């Protein structure tokens, strides 16, 4: 028995004593793992020893030298050994660029503060007690990068036992972080009711405002916690207003406290749609028509966000339905702009002015038409809104709807008697704007409603000019089919073909040529449509733009151009010109072999155009 040995199956190591063998076997198991760094240990005692390195203050003693790799140690003799071994020369310590003692002490204290606040964040009561027992007055005042103290952190995390410990050590209950927040609003934001009660009972200032002017009640209103708001209000009644008989008897500044933009808690609750908080504040006597710095009432904010229940409650409490903001918007303007149909109906039922003028003389109907809210347009018209009211630039709701391509709104306005040819300050009709936007459906509705197909803007531009300027070929075809003149001139003597020549869409040029447009007309600069297709660099156009097909079409149609234009032609186009106009290009080089398939491909693609204008000969 005495000579019996035990061999480890994993490593082959031999033991004569069973207890040694058992201890060794546990080292292979490593069942005990650290929850912080995931290291594993075979023995529980080893894990506990390792865990203490995470829990207790680490690396207090650090090397003073700036670039030293020494990690630091909790033992002073380790640092002494390091200095002796690595920073001693000729038996003397070479201080060199060592950190001053005061700075070293500050760094040590900073490290302790970081570790202390981390323990507070984890709620490790035993370690926090150890820190406070060793250096309570200093640790209590410790702050992190955001200026948060242990009290701020405990309030957010809900560590009530630690808060009690801090209060016993005399921490200032109204201590401020970097953003001028006390611990109370942080607890309110995180909905830590027990913490809020403890702080209030120990004298926390419920009226304290942060750097933005927000009080604790602002925070409660913002998060929409009616229970939290009630807790704050009850504390105010019980501790600071025992002589008052009801909420409505309390001094108004408490309920109508303003932040830096003059928003009250009621504004914030209405903006977020927190009905319970709004009702509570109104029951307390909060002013229902209080104004922000931009003259917004709570009703404005609720209407803008579409909070129907809040809007109804505010109206029931006597809110003014036509209060104007700094930009003269009423709640109805804001609701119509966002398309909140139910709110619009409720406001109209409450007596809201349907034709109130906002900035630039926009009515609610203008805003609804601009945004394309067809469902809102109907109730506004039914409520007596003027269908042809004008903005400062003389835009009607029909102009705005046509410009944005809201065909459903256009149909509603036309059926309600809107003037189809109303002019803006620049003499634009709704058809001009629909043509510029390229909205075929809207253009059809306007023409069916009797719109003039050839109205002139202040610069004598027609809808056809605008359609070709933007390359909207389908709208242009519609206008031509409805009798639009193919060659009207604007103030620059440009025809629609001039506009089409500037685009990259040869189909626009082809459409006008099929409609027998005059292709040799000159504008005020003396340029023909052909000039605009070939003189790209002269007008700062992108040289990579491809106007080849447009140029070929105009050349095939016998379009004329000046000698100045010739200098802008590439050799390829000169050969093209010589092919279609041999008499005019006598003496030019036409022997380029690459031009033959190029011309053949074009002749096949636009055979009808080439044939039509070839028959006209050179007399054009």
TrEMBL record:
Write out the GO MF terms.
Answer: zinc ion binding
Query: Which residue intervals correspond to the ANK repeats?
Result: 146-178, 179-211, 261-293, 294-326, 327-359, 360-392, 393-425, 426-458, 459-491, 492-524
Which keywords, in A-to-Z order, does the entry hold?
ANK repeat, Metal-binding, Repeat, Zinc, Zinc-finger
Domain spans labelled C2H2-type: 6-33, 32-54
**Pfam families named among the record's database cross-references:** Ank (PF00023), Ank_2 (PF12796), zf-C2H2 (PF00096)
- Which ranges form a coiled coil? none
The cross-references to PANTHER family, in alphabetical order and at most eight, read: ANKYRIN REPEAT PROTEIN, GH09064P
Q: What is this protein called?
A: C2H2-type domain-containing protein
Provide the species name.
Cadophora malorum
């Amino acid at each position: 028995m005495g000579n019996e040995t035990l061999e480890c199956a994993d490593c082959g190591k031999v033991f004569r004593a069973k207890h040694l063998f058992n201890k060794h076997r546990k080292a292979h198991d490593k069942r005990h793992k650290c929850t912080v760094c995931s290291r594993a240990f075979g023995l529980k005692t080893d894990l506990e020893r390792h865990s203490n390195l995470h829990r207790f203050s680490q690396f207090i003693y650090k090397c003073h030298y700036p670039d030293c790799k020494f990690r630091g140690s909790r033992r002073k003799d380790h640092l002494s050994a390091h200095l002796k071994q690595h920073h001693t020369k000729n038996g003397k310590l070479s201080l060199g660029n060592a950190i001053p003692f005061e700075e070293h002490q500050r760094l040590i204290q900073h490290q302790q503060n970081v570790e202390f606040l981390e323990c507070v964040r984890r709620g490790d009561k035993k370690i926090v007690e150890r820190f406070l027992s060793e250096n309570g007055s200093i640790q209590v005042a410790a702050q992190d990068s955001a200026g948060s103290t242990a009290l701020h952190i405990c309030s957010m995390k809900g560590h009530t036992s630690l808060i009690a410990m801090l209060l016993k050590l005399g921490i200032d209950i109204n201590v401020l972080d970097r953003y001028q927040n006390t611990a109370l609003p942080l607890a309110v934001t995180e909905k830590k009711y027990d913490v809020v009660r403890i702080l209030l009972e120990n004298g926390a200032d419920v009226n304290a405002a942060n750097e933005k002017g927000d009080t604790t009640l602002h925070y409660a209103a913002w998060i929409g916690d009616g229970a939290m708001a009630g807790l704050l209000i009850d504390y105010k009644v019980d501790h600071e207003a025992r002589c008052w008989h009801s909420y409505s008897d309390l001094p108004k500044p408490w309920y109508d406290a303003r932040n830096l933009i003059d928003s009250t808690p009621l504004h914030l609750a209405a903006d977020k749609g927190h009905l319970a908080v709004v009702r509570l504040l109104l029951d307390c006597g909060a002013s229902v028509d209080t104004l922000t710095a931009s003259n917004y009432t709570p009703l404005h904010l609720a209407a803008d966000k579409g909070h129907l229940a809040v809007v109804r409650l505010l109206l029931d409490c006597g809110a003014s339905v036509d209060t104007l903001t700094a930009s003269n918007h009423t709640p109805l303007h804001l609701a119509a702009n966002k398309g909140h149909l139910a709110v619009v109906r409720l406001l109209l039922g409450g007596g809201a002015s349907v034709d109130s003028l906002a900035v630039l003389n926009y009515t609610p109907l203008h805003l609804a038409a601009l945004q394309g809210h067809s469902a809102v347009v109907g109730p506004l018209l039914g409520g007596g809104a003027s269908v042809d009211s004008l903005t400062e630039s003389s835009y009607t709701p029909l102009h705005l709807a046509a410009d944005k391509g809201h065909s459903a709104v256009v149909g509603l306005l036309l059926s309600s008697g809107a003037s189809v040819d109303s002019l803006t300050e620049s003499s634009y009709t709704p058809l001009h704007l629909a043509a510029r936007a390229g909205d075929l459906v809207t253009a059809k509705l306007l023409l069916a409603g009797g719109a003039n197909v050839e109205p002139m803007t202040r610069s004598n531009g027609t809808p056809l000019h605008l359609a070709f300027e933007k390359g909207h070929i389908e709208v242009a075809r519609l206008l031509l089919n409805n009798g639009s003149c193919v060659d009207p001139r604007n103030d620059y003597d440009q025809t629609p073909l001039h506009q089409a020549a500037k685009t990259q869409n040869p189909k626009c040029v082809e459409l006008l040529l099929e409609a027998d447009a005059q292709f040799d007309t000159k504008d005020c600069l003396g340029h023909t449509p052909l000039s605009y297709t070939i003189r790209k660099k002269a007008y700062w156009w992108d040289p990579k733009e491809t106007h080849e097909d447009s140029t070929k079409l105009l050349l095939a149609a016998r379009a004329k151009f000046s000698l100045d234009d010739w200098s802008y032609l590439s050799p390829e186009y000169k050969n093209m010109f010589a092919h279609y106009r041999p008499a005019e290009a006598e003496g030019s080089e036409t022997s380029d072999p690459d031009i033959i398939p190029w011309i053949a491909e074009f002749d096949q693609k636009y055979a009808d155009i080439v044939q039509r204008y070839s028959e006209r000969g050179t007399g054009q």
